[in-house]
Amino acid sequence: MFATQFSSLSFLNNWRTKLTYFFITPMINLALLVLINMQYSNQFNWDVAISSIAMDAAVLALETFCSAVITDANLKIDFELIAKKPFSFRYWLTKCFVAIIIGCTLALINLFLLYLVGAPLVIIKRALLMLPLSCIYGCALGFVSWAISWQMNDPYFLENIFSSLAQLISGVLVVISAYPDWLKAIALLFPFAEPVTYIKTGHANLIYSIFITFIWLIIGIFAYIIQIKPVLAKGKHHY
């Protein structure tokens, strides 16, 4: 079953897309954020580089989860799922497990490369500690973005928004305590800021990030439940 899930991910189809997703894109994001940070700090900050990789891992987990369930929807597997067992623990756990593996793989590759060029081990250890949690948060928001966008013309609508905002709302470039109040309020609506704060400082309110993730999951489950009947009706009409 896991092999099937991995084979359904388009970016794993050849070495070029693997190289792009797991190395080129993360390194470009890292370079841009580090260079922007250097404009006002006048120094190279490893915490920005390492936090950037951790967030790219979370975003890839989010995108992987969302892509997997959208692929199932395109194949009408979503209709079969909700008709028989809409809350299948095995189904959703498999999606999460695959997304977490993909996200962690990205992070491990790039953190190892950063270690080889002199990244401080203490910050890398913090990133590794936060890595599973960050990817779980990515899965949670992947589910929410899919559930809300399920019947939209563009099922990737909310995923694209979350992915685009992730680096900003996580405080990779600047810790959110230094944000203006309005931007801090937005950042605190998402769970990514606390893991990034921990990577940078060694201290964070992780309980808060877990609570926010739980709230997002409630929203996603509610969106999922209220759309089950319309999807079933559409599926029966289609068949």
Automatic annotation (TrEMBL):
What are the transmembrane regions? 20-36, 48-71, 91-116, 128-148, 168-193, 205-226
Q: State if Membrane is listed as a keyword.
A: yes
Could you tell me the keywords of this UniProt record? Membrane, Transmembrane, Transmembrane helix
Q: What is this protein called?
A: Antibiotic transporter permease
